[in-house]
Amino acid sequence: MLSKRRIGMQVVLMLLLSMAFGRAWADFTLPYGDQGNELDVKVVGSEHQRGPLFLWFTNQYGRTTGAEAIAHALARRGATVWMVDLLDSLLLQRSNEVVRGL
Fold first, then answer.
1. Which of 37, 38, 41, 58 has the fewest CB atoms inside 10 Å of its own CB, making it the most exposed?
2. What's the predicted TM-score (pTM) here?
3. Cα–Cα nearest to 28, from 5, 44, 51
4. Domain housing 40
């Protein structure tokens, strides 16, 4: 049987891990609809830049290193990129059919 102290340590560890990884890449959430739904948005670049704002919706493969590299290249040239993974935010399966249905 586990001691109370050990159980307490496990609970604290789980809380810390959930805070660290719960919204691992959401810089802010954008509410939509009237049912309390939210989209997780990752911001690449500075919000104080005066360049263009790109709204980037990831494909069925999610975040990829190529897409991240392009977003960072745009940010270096003065743009701000808001990256949204609709499938992840809407808790949808990653497939071509689901993406086509959006």
1. 37
2. 0.62
3. 44
4. 23-101
